[in-house]
């Protein structure tokens, strides 16, 4: 048997202790151990962005990160966006701007957009494109996703 | 006509679960005692299977069962032709054919056990070009067939010999299109659950066409349709792609689940998905066109050869759409068209958004521009001299008189919005510097729904509960396009209730009659009519009850936003109270809706008839910049005008346009599944490139509405027309910018710069 290591993670504000092999990807820990299946797997090589989560304020492809590497990190997944106060402005903007079709890329898109707005609350269209360049969407043609991020940024400003 | 819900950009009814991560897709499902399965696929495109030894795999840790073709009750399935093997028995016909499968406690254990299966192959020579497959005496790839021809669709109109004699100019050109991957972001996933709620087997997962999958599973298990239940989950994109490949996966999972008496889950990796799934058909097209010197077309002769790959799959119908639309939306007295499909040892090809239209549109719209250049007429003017107008007769002899033929209107709107005329003149002059600009247009007509391919009918079920809540079931499937929202809007409009009273249920083959597949941009048109039918039946019952209760004329009963009014606008009761009372009186408040499309016809021998009951018209205009120094091609703007009949949800229609334009751009300039002697070289998204957010042009959608007499509230189609025009419009713009006519897709860097692909054997 492969050696296991204990890892402590804070996911969506909750502390977890998980036992993982050295090879376990963060994506698998989230989906299989923590049952947070909102984070999706699309390519496993860091190209599609469906597995994007936020690790210590940065958007990362969770298929390219080993859980053991992020011991002690703070992680946000799509499940962490909605609060008791309701939907996050980004979620609301995605709904209002028809930025969702099949919805499979949506969690990753939301995470990349969240990382962007946390760092740059008033991004230009080009900055939005740069932030979302690693997230593939085959349904929407991206326009309504850009509209949504712009709308959320405007809401953020208020 | 004023609507409460129809024709409004209301929010999607399934958006909440999708932005919160609550939406469950196939790979997210878990069941008690579930095991995981993986498939061993052939590395060879054509080989005999001499022996398979599974004994070592069976002894691997965690393994529950190892299976080969001998374990499959009935190994052949297929929607049109039953030639596809669940697992290859004696012979593999494509690289990616499944030959064995393993179920184990974990996915990793299943994958490890696969490596221990020993297959002895005898490699056979392969056929990798459909033109080679048609040669006399060549090896047959399916033994029970006469030859390698999957299908031949002829069409004859007038006399082409005569037509070419009348021509002042005759142009002959050849065009070629490529294999394309659907690239849905969610790889295929299913779970088969045995002995589930009185069914022999239930299948859950990312299934585009639940009834087709149900049929395949029932055929493979040799059981009745009613023993198989298929429930679609949220599906992460499909675009025509999650049909046969998912049916095969479902059948495999079902066989294992019944043997093990445990739920079996199968999830493809991206590599497995690209290796095994079917692609868009590559076409080789020969076009010959005659025209008078003032630009009137006199004859067109077309031969198109489609690569069907190892299986027939949807080839007979894909090529049928091509034969109907091959001449484009142009009046022609004399036409001779032959579209063929052949088996090869390449990846098999099937349905993909657009079906058999993007290939012929790329050819025919490139050809019209080439002809315009020869005649020294502007591409716009040449089109306007020849396009379909009201009462035009199509190549198959159909008179277009039952709907508004709006091609001229959509062209005019796109031309105005894009400043086509001014830009065309400007870019026609000599341009300084390396960066050259070009503008190109493409137009199309498209038959809505299935046409003469199959029976075109759909069902819905609406149930009104005593508390006023409403459950809607449809036999057509939400594939991301927005069907749940559209059908909820129609339900709300007809019943006079608010959208929040409606719960839209997942498609489940137990509850609704077989409605065919969610394909051919037919859901809003055909499924929408069935929803309207069910809602109207219920509305009539409620109206009658209210007329009686409040002593009103039937025509005076008005229901809006969940309230009952009399003819004078006085509020009489709430919808909830009325249906509660009706329920207490034992009045039936559930209704099935059914819609069957108008009659259509097709003569297979001559290619004549009325193949579709209505059509949509579109025009897209592309603007490009070509760096003649580096060959870099950038599509800067796309204007897309589409007649949709009526936009039930304009925001969704725009979403379809944006998505279709970007997918069309991928087809036009970036994407190609590289197949070398039957083997796919680019099996993940790091090598198979699809458009990113940085590749999207500025897109200007123009919604044109000419309500169709047949469609629900006049609605027709939008999903596929949006993607079929881009490659041709871009090719025409590139030709103007660079002076180079590229007749092969994709129009990538090397083709733009040096006129051919750089890879070995590139043409």
Describe this structure in words.
Chain A is α+β, with helices and mostly antiparallel strands and 158 residues long. Helix content of chain A is 34%, strand content 17%. Chain A folds into 2 domains: 4-79, Ubiquitin-like (UB roll) (Roll); 89-157, Orthogonal Bundle (DNA polymerase, domain 1), CATH 1.10.150.120. Chain A has helices at 26-33, 89-96, 106-119, 125-132, 143-157; strands spanning 4-11, 14-21, 52-55, 58-61, 74-76. Chain A has a 5-stranded mixed sheet, sandwiched between helices. In chain B, a hairpin with a 6-residue loop joins strand 4 and strand 5. Chain B has a 7-stranded mixed sheet. A 5-stranded mixed sheet of chain B has the order 9-17-16-15-10. With 763 residues, chain B is an alpha+beta fold. In chain B, helix 10 (357-375) runs parallel beside helix 19. At the A-B interface, helix 2, helix 3, helix 4 and helix 5 of A face helix 1 and helix 17 of B.
Short key terms for the protein model shown above:
heterodimer, A: 158 residues, alpha+beta, Ubiquitin-like (UB roll), DNA polymerase, domain 1, 2 domains, five-stranded mixed beta sheet, 5 helices, globular, B: 763 residues, Aldehyde Oxidoreductase, domain 4, Aldehyde Oxidoreductase, domain 3, 3 domains, seven-stranded mixed beta sheet, 20 helices, 25% strand
